[in-house]
Write a structure and sequence with these properties.
Number of helices: 2
Largest sheet: 7 strands, mixed
Helix content: under 10%
Distance between the termini: 149 Å
Strand content: 35-45%
Shape: elongated
Structural class: mainly beta
Radius of gyration: 49 Å
Length: about 475
């Protein structure tokens, strides 16, 4: 009879305790008992179990407690409970709460029960809250009666039940979640984007091995006073390059004309550009720049330099093709001989990887070493030469109706092509227009020709014809507008 009374009081108290407060884990307030479970997981259709424990600081012990549950009933169902304390009763009330009763006072912290929870077949994968509410209990004493019930401090403890299954992660990235392994000369590197939620490697990009990167500049031969252009070329790695800094140099006796962007560089600034193009004598700044990389260059005192920095404006842009970075045009000295010209790459080539996934490493940049930092070429100035010609110096390739021809005029001594004249393709047509006249009128018919460009026409032979009924005495022939009166 005593248990029935206790059960009735506890049930009534549970019904009127609708809004429990949430108490954070920590030291319990006076006259408070905490009931809690554990985080568990399972698949749709599974029946899983959760341990139910009690944290009980009440000195005289606990004789009964009513435990309520809050959970998503479309996904979960509490099906049964197993008592873990010998001699005690555990039952479900009509409204689904769990009632635990004992004839003896339970002292201290205990594992109270194990409840079984069915995961519904149609439960969506995800995490669900499972909250314990324990609003009312009975303290045990030496002579317990129904009047000895005390309402415990109402509190909630929330556990989590994870329903497993195939669910697509909305990948998230935070600083440090991206991993970059730079390439070497012989081995590929890689970029990995790792989701901070599921830890899956979402994307992987390969950074190709950069191989042997070399700069070159070709030797040139010129006549005194000629303008000659030298191109600093590079075999670009697959990763592309983001930029570098260099000096183009040449002997002081060689006159500087201009510096221009090579075919890999766009002067407009949207791609890498040549920032500085002023020629100057070798100076301390240049010495410091090459000393920083241990570059040896012995011709400082006799050298003029042009500084060039190849970088994008605001946004770094890759160069992917082989070609020239900078073009240096000089004027050949009047004195025949050999002159030095070249380039010094005084900064590392840089390339990298832009963080397209927002993985936290931003734009990753790394250096790639070139095989050579000093590039040398020779400008050979020939003896002064006066061209001479005779009647065998011209070579003619006649044009056709669809292809142009040319005339090449070569020096008979050095065989150099001094001049080339293009002969355009021709498409020549003769035309004569119909005329209308009255009897006895004099009528003029013009034979027209569309003469080819450049070559023109020198002459031809033709017959003009007409019906015999016209009569020779009534015909005259004159030169057209393309010919003189004579």
């Amino acid at each position: 009879m005593k248990r029935k009374v206790l059960s009735l009081i506890l049930c009534i108290a549970m019904l009127i305790s609708v809004f429990p407060s949430v108490i954070s884990v920590g030291a319990l307030p006076e006259n408070t008992v905490r009931v809690y479970g554990e985080d568990i997981e399972g698949n749709p259709g599974d029946t899983i179990t959760m341990k139910v424990s009690i944290e009980n600081p009440i000195e005289v012990g606990l004789g009964a407690i009513l435990i309520g549950f809050q959970y998503e009933k479309s996904a979960l169902t509490v099906t049964s409970a197993e008592n873990k304390l010998v001699g005690d009763d555990i039952t479900f009330t009509n409204n689904g709460n769990l009632l635990w009763e004992s004839d003896q006072a339970v002292m201290g912290d205990q594992e109270l029960a194990v409840i079984s929870i069915k995961i519904n077949e149609d439960a969506e994968p995800g995490q669900y809250d499972f909250t314990f509410i324990d609003p009312l209990g009975q303290q045990a004493g030496p002579e317990v009666t129904a009047d000895d019930f005390s309402e415990l401090e109402s509190l909630s403890v929330t556990q989590h039940i994870t329903v497993l299954g195939d669910t697509e992660c909305e990948h998230k990235f935070e600083p440090g979640s991206g991993k970059v392994t730079p390439p070497t000369r012989t081995e590929d590197g890689k970029v990995e984007a790792v989701c901070t939620e599921c830890r899956e490697t979402v994307e992987t990009a390969t950074l190709p091995a950069y191989g042997d990167i070399t700069f070159t500049m070709d030797d040139q031969t010129a006549n005194p006073g000629d303008e000659v252009t030298f191109a600093l070329k590079i075999n670009t790695p697959e990763t592309g390059i983001w930029g570098t800094a260099l000096y183009a140099y040449f002997d002081n006796t060689v006159e500087f004309v201009k510096a221009e962007a090579g075919d890999l560089v766009d002067e407009k600034g949207t791609s890498p550009n040549v920032v500085s193009k002023d020629a100057r004598a070798w100076d301390e700044e240049a010495t410091n720049a090459i000393d920083a990389y241990g570059i040896t260059f012995d011709a400082k005192d006799s050298t003029t330099i042009v500084g060039a920095t190849v970088y994008g404006e605001n946004v770094k842009a890759n160069i992917y093709d082989d070609g020239s970075l900078i073009l240096i045009t000089v004027k050949a000295p009047e004195e025949p001989g050999e002159y030095n010209i070249g380039a010094i790459i005084h900064d590392e080539l840089t390339t990298g990887y832009k963080d397209e996934w927002n993985c936290g490493f931003g734009t990753f940049e790394y250096e790639i070493p070139a095989e050579n930092r000093v590039v040398s070429a020779t400008l050979t100035v020939k003896e002064a030469h006066v061209h001479s010609f005779d009647d065998t110096c011209g070579t003619v390739t006649p044009p056709t109706r669809s292809e142009a021809g040319k005339v090449e005029i070569r020096c008979k001594e050095c065989k150099e092509v001094v001049e080339t004249i293009e002969l355009p393709a021709y498409d020549i047509n003769f035309t004569m227009e119909n005329r209308t006249a009255n009897p006895g009128d004099e009528v003029v018919f013009a034979l027209k020709v569309n003469a080819p460009e450049v070559t023109g026409i020198w002459g031809t032979a033709l017959y003009a014809y007409f019906d015999k009924t016209v009569g020779l005495e009534n015909v005259s022939v004159e030169a057209g507008e393309l010919f003189g009166a004579n």
